[in-house]
Amino acid sequence: MPTPDDVPALDRRGFLSRMAGSALVIGAGAPTLERLGAFPHEAATPGSIFTPGPHDPDAVVFAEARKHFLIPKGVCYCNTGTLGASPREVVDALINGTRRLETELADWDYKVADGEPLTGYQLSLALRTSVGKFINAAPDEVAVTQNATIGMNLLANGLDLAPGDEVITTDQEHGGCISPWRLKAKRFGIVVKELTLDDGTAGGPEGVVKLFADAMTPRTKVVMFSQVVSGFGTRMPARELCDLARSHGALALVDGAQAVGQIQVDVKALGCDAFVASPHKWMMAPKGTGVLYIRRDMQDRFWTTLASSHWDDKENGAFRFMQYGTGAVPVHDGLAAALAFIDKIGMARMERWDAMLTKRLRDGLAKIPRARVTSPNDPRLTAAITTFKVEGVTARDLQTALWKRRVRVRPQNDVRGVRLSAHIYMSPADVDTVLDVASKLA
Asked: Quick check: 47 pLDDT over 70?
């Protein structure tokens, strides 16, 4: 987290106010660790703060972390791909931030924008600095939005494209990120090529790159894809696709909604021109938080299509893409708390835990005769989302059977089955429950 000295004077008032509020959330003293195996699924002592030790075994850290979520006892939540569960520190930041805002509402004199009890007009530089550090971007390359859908709409609608210009993407993109391009095709006559991704994944990462490469033409202006695909959890060869796009003079735009908080993200290493994300998923931030990254040297390529007072402010970089009017300061407080929570664990450790759970699940499903993993099986394409089915069982019936054992997944369709997102509040014993249900249905 930045210090007050890292923040310009205009933003310091708001920064200090937020840090004071965060003291209510980030206190001292760790709860006692109790047992391993299945997570205890019990709440930590009210007021206790999650403080994992750097050398604690993963099983200890995540058993304790599970206590700091409001997920009811006995429930295994596996739908992070839709909405992440927020830890109590994030929830407290929202509650305390709301109470503080309503208490201090009359104190604000509106002499400067930064620090006012609303967002959408202020720089929010402290938060943008923290988000930037998380994805390896400069603060002036980061805009805080509401979700990945808004970010991709800003990119698609802000880009000048002529009739016949091409956007290359896949047939497995989330509706929030493919729809802006479909709209642009209908309105302005651009061409959107939605490649059949299964044709590429059959050949591994190299097959995916070849699929895109074969579709490139001199009219290709944009390559847009998900770093981790929502429906199947396919981990795309993102760096290679960004290199491919830029080698053809096209923009590389990445949907990172299922990536941030699930895997370590470095937008500079990816080489993308822009990146959108929804921290309310794997980052476990408040619902209604989004991130838009645009490389500083590419920002002039995009018009501001959601406009308010600073719509044409080029000096402050991505700030002009945050001009959405009145928003909720406590949501920003919650995003800061989510970043602090993740920082205490470390993304490398979180990614390792999720990968362990996913391998345990997939190895177990492989031993069940009628169980089928419909996500790609190539480990190079695997993330912490597994879509699977049981032959002869509908997706809804599989979801119902799992929920009888208090495991929440999301059904896709009867061809795909159900989608299970394995994140830090899931234990190995929870995986075994899923396998037990699947084996009895089979």
From this structure: no
C-alpha dist (Å) from residue 199 to 50, 100, 196, 210: 45, 53, 6, 10
Question: Which residue in the block uniquely carries the two structure tokens 């396998």?
Answer: 435
Specify the DSSP class assigned to residue 375.
Answer: S
Token representation of residue 330: 């406590």
**220-226: strand order across its sheet:** 142-145, 290-294, 274-277, 251-255, 220-226, 166-170, 191-195
Segment 318-369, tens digit of pLDDT: 999 999 999 999 999 999 999 999 999 999 999 999 999 999 999 999 999 9
Residue with tokens 């894809």: 225
Q: Tokens for 352?
A: 């390792």
Kindly give the pairing relationship between strand 220-226 and strand 251-255: parallel
Please state whether the predicted TM-score (pTM) of the whole model is above 0.85. yes
- CATH placement of domain 125-327: 3.40.640.10
In the chain, domain spans: 4-111+340-346, 125-327, 348-441
Q: Where does 385-427 have alpha helices with state H?
A: 395-404
Distance CA 53, CA 39 (A): 18
